[in-house]
Amino acid sequence: MPPGDLAALVTCAVKLYAAAVEEAESEYPVIDATVSTTEAMVVACALMRAHGLNPFDLALWFSRTAPAPRGNEPGA
Predict the structure, then answer these.
(1) Contacts of 48 (CB under 8 A, 6+ apart)
(2) Structural Rg of the chain based on CA atoms
């Protein structure tokens, strides 16, 4: 696959997933375990490098986007 086509495909997938997360009311859309840890980290690192982010930035965003712990939902 040409690099430009691959970049466009990954960009589209990331945008679709981010939109689904924004629309989710309680739980994030699940990515199944067919994506290996290594594959996930390769993509995560590439996305971070593309935006000049570092592990500290990731920690801040990770805590910001973490789903609420179970049992803390309104009415629970």
Answers:
(1) 54, 57, 58
(2) 15
How far apart (Å, rounded) are the C-alpha atoms in residues 34 and 40? Answer: 10
Cβ atoms within 10 A of the Cβ of 65, count?
A: 9
C-alpha to C-alpha distance for 46 and 50, rounded to whole angstroms: 6
> What are the sequence ranges of the domains in the chain?
3-26+34-62
pLDDT of residue 76: 47
Claim: this prediction has a pTM higher than 0.70: no
What angle in degrees, to the nearest 10, is found between the helix axes of 55-65 and 37-50?
A: 110
